[in-house]
Amino acid sequence: MPTLEIMPQRGEAINLVGVAALNRLQVCSDDLCRKAMELTDSWGQAMFILCPATVQKIFSALGFRNEVCTRVYDAVRALSYVDHRQEGKPNQSEMTWHIVDAACMTLRGVVGLGSAMASINDETVEDFLQNNAELFQQLMKAMPDYTAYLMFSPEVASTVVASLGGNLSADKIYELAFTHGGQVTKDLEGRRGVSTQFIRSLTLTISARI
């Protein structure tokens, strides 16, 4: 029997999401972990471990209530999808950037993560950003300083968006990264770069408002 695709469902407003919604992370743990693994591949198998302060700052910028922001780090780590070993310290699970968009949408009650951003494409993204400019800028400011200096190809960014159902071309992302993010790079051999600060702020703005 063929598997039926889960159609995306619009989530509730972030300021209405209470602490009870953290249970959704455990209920949807299989979907969340699969999406985190897919996005790890989308980013070129790089892993970016998050600290509690960064998680709280990002989820606060998204507009979640304080009781959610202070608990989401431990709730996501409890999914145990990344094991971190350090010499002289006990092994522990970690939270990485690759699950943040999916966690945001799941907390809001969005289902169908693989097609959740289907309404976002080269034709619609400009209006979306203009309509959500304040949130986008809040997220840009909330991002750790290092994210402004980590440049990834717009092709990688396009694959990241596609993993969540969007359809943004690499050229459009490169254009947006300059007009809305303020910077891009291009090397002697023509390789282009957009900052993780920009692409993460973009996908999180979408995750918060679709």
Write the layout of secondary structure elements.
Elements: H1 23-27, H2 29-42, H3 52-62, H4 66-69, H5 72-77, E1 83-84, E2 92-93, H6 100-107, H7 125-131, H8 133-142, E3 151-152, H9 154-163, H10 170-179, E4 185-186, E5 192-195, H11 196-209
Antiparallel strand pairs: 1-2, 3-5, 4-5
Q: How many distinct domains?
A: 1
Structural class: mainly alpha
Radius of gyration: 17 Å
Span from first to last CA? 31 Å
Helix content class: 40-55%
Poorly predicted regions are 1-8
Q: Give the number of DSSP strands.
A: 5
Widest sheet: strand ordering? 3-5-4
Number of helices: 11
Report the major sheet.
3 strands, antiparallel
Shape field: globular
**SSE sequence, one letter per element:** HHHHHEEHHHEHHEEH
- Provide mean pLDDT, rounded: 92
How large is the share of residues in beta strands? Answer: 5-15%
Give a structural overview.
Strand 4 (185-186) and strand 5 (192-195) form a beta hairpin. Residues 1-8 have low confidence and may be disordered. The protein is globular and about 45 Å long. Helix 6 (100-107) runs parallel beside helix 11, helix 8 (133-142) packs across helix 11 and helix 9 crosses helix 10 (170-179). The protein is mainly alpha-helical. It is built from eleven helices and five strands; from the N terminus they run αααααββαααβααββα. The chain has one domain. The strands form two sheets. A three-stranded antiparallel beta sheet has the order 3-5-4. A two-stranded antiparallel sheet has the order 1-2. Helices cover 47% and strands 6% of the residues.
